[in-house]
Amino acid sequence: MRAVRLSVVTAAATAAALAAVTGCTEKGSSGSGDRVISVTATDDKCEVSKKEFPAGHIELAIENKGSKVTEVYVLFPDDRIVTERENIGPGTKQKVTAEVKAGDYTIACKPGMKGDGIRQAVKATGGKVAKRDPRLDAAVAAYRKYAQEQADATLPLAETFAKAVKAGDLEAAKKAYAPSRIGWERTEPVAESFGDIDPKVDVRADGLEAGQKFTGWHRLEKSLWEDKKITAEDKTLADELITDLTDWQKRVGKAEITPTSMANGAKELLDEVATGKVTGEEERYSHTDLVDFKANVEGAEQSYELLKPVAKENDAALVTELDKQFAALNTLLDKYRVDKNSYDFTSYDKVGDADRKQLSDAVNALAEPLSKLAAAVVK
Known about the structure:
Number of helices: 13
Number of strands: 9
Largest sheet: 5 strands, mixed
Radius of gyration: 20 Å
Strand content: 15-25%
Low-confidence stretches: 2-32
Shape: globular
Mean pLDDT: 88
Strand order of the largest sheet: 3-9-8-5-6
Structural class: alpha+beta
């Protein structure tokens, strides 16, 4: 579940911690040049330094001068996401590297991380994007295959979960719940890029927009663990979940994927851990947060490993640090399962504050260098 689904109160409380996690947050001045677009966000404005810029690699130099935590998106005309940066605290600056083809786009700032945001129409101009390293093309192709495999594997697991719900079998549904989410959590940035699927299948109660119906996994999670009963409405919602996940499975192959979106997506997965899993908010009824946590890390590591050959050539020190921090975080997660090949993790309500702090510190230690991966692959 994306950080945009956090409540404003929760987002404000975690903004300071996330500033450390981003690795790109800074108080200094941004860069210059025709490929740098300065974005100044306030509580009621979203100002951009240029409405036209060359196609290819661009950098958003974002400054939040408002009083609310915000997020900034580059969107296609149909609202699919090109790139994003969430949880930008008041008074902070962040940089995001992205790749765009010639065409029309929208830059949107979302004060309070709610709604459609304050929008500016922009245009990328130029005939061709610079020729890309063929190793990066191979990485994109491999990641696209990985994302499709995860979607394909998720659907039968979700169907097992839905069948248990529809049969009224509370215990079988509980057992099937966490496994049905692993593939989604591994590739969540791709799923979120479509814009309309995530709010249907992975929204939490505190992330609902005005008038939005509570549906998807977490609505059923609440019934199973908190309400301890399966209703007729839950059975209908189980069918809706399968319909929405089937839609996702069919659309994965059409997702816009670039080397920078892979790198930024890896960073987003670590932010997912920081804002939902470490805090225990994501799976607040089932306490299966560590299953999601591990899946997010696996998805981030998959993107990293595919981009690693180019990143190592451009920034060997960064790769050394990322190898170290991925290994440390995975070793720490292994403490919470008996079998390293299973996803049978300790219930998160059994993990004390000191251990949660240790997990949080390990996430931060990985997320800081991971925020530099996109820049490393386009040097």
